[in-house]
């Protein structure tokens, strides 16, 4: 795909908590309309970086910008109209129905009590995430995967420019995970997605940002940055990267770990 101007730009961002460095001078971008994947081992800094874009925390140093404007300069409602966030874990005692949860996406667009009909109508989003049959189910009765799909539908109902997702495929079976990412991609929105599954990242992401120990290791299209050498250095995997016979996208064939047993 043609390179688009960045909607999200992270500039030399660091996060320190006491003596621990969670992010160390990371700079990266997410182009307009593209799906950018954040990948790396556990503890690499993926969720910390997402938390800066989501405004859950401020960097110890550095800047995060949306459309060239530092995120802290946006008003709360204005930011919610631009950026929707899907968290990895959502804990709530409220027992709203699925339809009500998805309808929460309209809140940033309210004017008084009025909600624009194009935003308020949740039917399309329920259908898009294949959860129309769950519309009357309450949150506390949903499985982890059903909650994830409901949260993505709610985020899309915000009609944001940017959608930020932290491990959205957790709790999903392979078909549901594939379907969820396909629908995020088809939405045409700028997406920043933290993923553990390297195969899904290679298949659905236009661009990858690879972190390790809080530092940027590589950034670029999957076919450029996913190499056998990188997988060995970052993940400790003994693997080959080949072209998928149908899609042509990178396909990772794992033979074992660098220091462990082989198949």
Automatic annotation (TrEMBL):
Keyword tRNA processing: no
UniProt xrefs under Gene3D superfamilies: P-loop containing nucleotide triphosphate hydrolases
Location of the ABC transporter domain: 8-238
SUPFAM superfamilies in the record: P-loop containing nucleoside triphosphate hydrolases
SMART domains xref list: AAA (SM00382)
Matches recorded under Pfam families: ABC_tran
PROSITE patterns cross-referenced by the UniProt entry: ABC_TRANSPORTER_2 (PS50893)
Gene Ontology MF annotations: ATP binding; ATP hydrolysis activity
Keyword annotations of the record: ATP-binding, Nucleotide-binding, Transport
Name this protein carries in UniProt: Putative ABC transporter ATP-binding protein
Originating organism: Gordonia malaquae NBRC 108250
């Amino acid at each position: 795909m043609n390179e688009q101007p960045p909607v999200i730009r992270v500039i030399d961002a660091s996060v320190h908590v006491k003596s621990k460095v969670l992010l160390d001078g990371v700079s990266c971008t997410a182009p307009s309309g593209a799906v950018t994947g954040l990948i790396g081992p556990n503890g690499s800094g993926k969720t910390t970086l997402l938390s800066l874009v989501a405004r859950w925390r401020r960097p110890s140093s550095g800047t995060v910008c949306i459309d060239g404007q530092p995120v802290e300069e946006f008003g709360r409602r204005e930011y919610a109209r631009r950026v929707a966030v899907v968290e990895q874990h959502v804990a709530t005692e409220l027992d709203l129905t699925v339809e009500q949860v998805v309808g929460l996406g309209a809140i940033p667009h309210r004017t008084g009590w009025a909600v624009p009909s194009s935003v308020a109508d949740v039917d399309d989003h329920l259908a898009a995430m294949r959860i129309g049959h769950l519309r009357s189910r309450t949150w506390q009765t949903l499985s982890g995967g059903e909650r994830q799909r409901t949260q993505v539908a709610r985020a899309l109902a915000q009609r944001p420019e940017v959608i930020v997702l932290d491990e959205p495929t957790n709790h999903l079976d392979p078909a549901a995970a594939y379907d969820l990412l396909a629908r995020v991609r088809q939405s045409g929105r700028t997406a920043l997605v933290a993923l553990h599954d390297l195969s899904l990242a290679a298949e659905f992401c236009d661009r990858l940002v690879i972190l390790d120990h809080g530092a940027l290791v590589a950034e670029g299209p999957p076919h450029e940055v996913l190499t056998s050498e990188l997988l060995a250095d970052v993940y400790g995997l003994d693997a080959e990267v080949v072209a998928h016979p149908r899609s042509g996208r990178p396909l990772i064939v794992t033979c074992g770990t660098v220091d462990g047993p082989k198949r």
